[in-house]
Amino acid sequence: MKYQRKLSFSKQGKDFVKEKEKELIIYKEPIKALKKLIHKKKKKVKIKILDLGCGYGRISKVLKKFGNVVGLDISYQGLKLAKKLKIPLVLGDGEILPFRSKSFDVVVCAEAIPYTDNPYNMLREIKRVLVNNGLLFLSVENLYGGLISDPFIKASEIEDIIRRGESKKAKYFRKEEILSTLEKMGFKVIYFRPVGFVRAGFLSKYKFRNVEKLERLCAKYVPLLARAFVIIAVAPSHQ
Q1: How many CA atoms lie within 13 A of 101 on its CB side?
Q2: In this predicted model, what pLDDT tens digit does every residue of 94-126 receive, in sequence order?
């Protein structure tokens, strides 16, 4: 799965980046929620934020407004594209984070967990590098919505994916599974939102205002069809 992550930028290039840029709209509401929480935590010095799986920096450029951002990704090609942001960038593995314990006030991990070999190792590492009561902003692929939205999944694979929760390309989660996992690790979930009902191919055909409205309606009435879940959780107060 890590190999798939590395290939994302090198093979798909500019077209991949354009599609991912369009998809950023689905994170607008969750990022607003994160911003409010960060402002409540503000210290005299800027908070430290890790963008884990930063890719070319589509979310890092937003996070720069909130504090000092460090970007980490396993893809060298992705980090090359992120250089223009002029933030510290680290080539590394999310399962073995090259940072001291309690180094960050906030860890943002958007769409990285599904592409690691062991998502639970990555979550343990995130917990380690977060300060007490630090914030985790996490997005994971929804098992049911992912099956609908992924054009590369073959019909013959679906039964096996539902049973095991993963394909050769990615790990998928049921809502109950990811929430239970975080709670068992000591995180307190304070925000949950299904996102990604409007696929990238349709985003350019609609005004952003309409997309936001449609996303909100779908999140309320058909959450199982979401491509992903966004979660904000608070790390344990004593680690």
Answers
A1: 7
A2: 999 999 999 999 999 998 998 888 999 999 999
Do β-strands 89-91 and 104-110 pair in parallel, antiparallel, or remain unpaired?
Answer: unpaired
Residue 239 placed within a domain: no
**80 touches 53 (CB < 8 A):** no
Residue 34 resides in a domain: yes
Query: Which residues of the chain carry a pLDDT beneath 70?
Result: 1-23, 42-44, 145-170, 198-211, 239
C-alpha separations of 120 from 103, 104, 131, 180, 184 in Å: 20, 19, 19, 12, 11
Dihedral sign from CA coordinates of 110, 9, 153, 94: negative
Domain containing 179 equals: 2-9+20-39+46-234
Please state the domain count of the chain.
1
Q: Is residue 64 part of a domain?
A: yes
As a whole number of Å, the CA-based R_g of the chain is 17
pLDDT value of residue 67:
94
Is 46 within 8 Å of 68 (Cβ atoms)? Answer: yes
| Residue 14 falls inside a structural domain | no
Any idea what the CATH number is for the domain that residue 81 is in? 3.40.50.150
CA–CA distance from 19 to each of 58, 69, 91, 149 (Å)? 11, 24, 23, 14
Q: How far apart are CA 26 and CA 20, in angstroms?
A: 10
